[in-house]
């Protein structure tokens, strides 16, 4: 609809008496004004929550609750190379621990989850995969919603991202297929900004053993198999998290309030709608001793607390298996048997080799030398360049178990298709292990192997009805023979790769317990004693079809048998993606935002939408009071917003 000049002028005059649109960051729950009202309350600021909050806040009033502190000024989070120091045992981490894992010889392991603005996107290795085509098509089939298929999700994949130049200015040609990527999304994707001493050797190995270890120009094409350059969430040599890409750019522009140090303690049952329990309220607090506050959402509460936090919150709120809830003194409001079940993760094993670097520096030198660390920190601080711009392997590899293997002779292949990977290589120039201490001398190369399509399933249950008690986390790592056999095949694959002529004169031999593990039984024993996790907690609130009785969520991510409640994070995936799942969560959240907005418009068309009117007028107020010169872009944005309501 075309706006008359007189209408715009009249609205502009009215805005001088209107309050500015809501957009503040509070450090404590007590700071939230009593008169604030919200259309949506989002719990958790990771890839799911940050994306949904920013997208919705363009048209609606949104409150984002984050249990942790701000990410601002936290150098450990900003510097990619510091990612190994962000958890466990830090102020950024929830500091969870798993129960003893039978598949890991009954070891319990620290379980990293982000407790900071940006969530785990501020603690991870920044690897961005869309996941293989088969994953998305399987998701569409499981849910009965073809909108989740690879072809239908292409626009959302591109909407997330923009490709930027790496910190060292290297060419992207042959390393990223620019034709398949977006160029205007909020999240920066690029290559790592420093070439280590094994990068060229890895590329060379793909020409010498091309049948098994071929080169893949872009793992995000839907076809992931092969070795190719890592696409990382980096911008100008620094981490680009959910906080830096999805939240901070919109504070002050959108109708988005953020409360830090605000842990959601319960979803509030606000009555019934059509005989179905509604959950449009949230209780939250700073700590177990502090005051508890409540806030209501006029439209929906969106839970994005991750595969640990989200099921925990539903259980605390009376949504879960009735018998289990009764054991901890909670009366079930919605008997949902599968809440906290189907828990999955990617086991991770470090395989190390002694190497001769021929005098070239590798990460072992940096880790042992405080002077080198100081030098490279100064380089990063001055120009955002150098080794500290690297937080993940420069190159990743994705592979399948060889066709002649007997692993699936008596078992079903767990991958999403014949082009989806069973396992991954993560090659590091230096010693990397989450189980063994680093050697004090020598030089090493570590090839971590991750199991990507686990058959094992775990669970999450409450320890008590106290929301500040940590839940009981059991990811079920390597609990099945099939998973242990696939990881055994991954070790054998690493050994075959290490025999490439590209490594002649560089690899001297296998290091430690790897060298002693030769028979299948010995390899499996080595696997069980040395495996940890990539911390890719997933699938504990799995979605399914509308009529599924085995799922927690509907295909649109709403919680079954409830009103006003939706989950947007990796807990919603029916199976853990056969890839680094960071990209999957961002992409799911982009579609989720559209699903939420579409549902809102069905209930309340834009013509009568108070939130849109408030947002449009608030935006006009900000522009007329704080920006003496209006750019054409801002003017058009205001006109578009007002046109929807006039």
From TrEMBL:
Residues annotated as the enzyme's active site: 536 (proton donor), 580 (proton acceptor)
Keywords on record:
FAD, Flavoprotein, Signal
Cofactor(s) listed in the protein's UniProt record: FAD
What family does the Swiss-Prot or TrEMBL record give for this protein? Belongs to the GMC oxidoreductase family.
Q: Which domain of life is it from?
A: Eukaryota
Pfam families with a match to the protein in the record? GMC_oxred_C, GMC_oxred_N
| Record-given protein name | Glucose-methanol-choline oxidoreductase N-terminal domain-containing protein
Instruction: Name the Gene Ontology molecular function terms of this record.
Output: flavin adenine dinucleotide binding; oxidoreductase activity, acting on CH-OH group of donors
Look up the signal peptide feature and give its range: 1-23
Question: Where, by residue number, does FAD bind?
Answer: 116, 120
Q: List residues of the Glucose-methanol-choline oxidoreductase N-terminal domain.
A: 114-137, 306-320
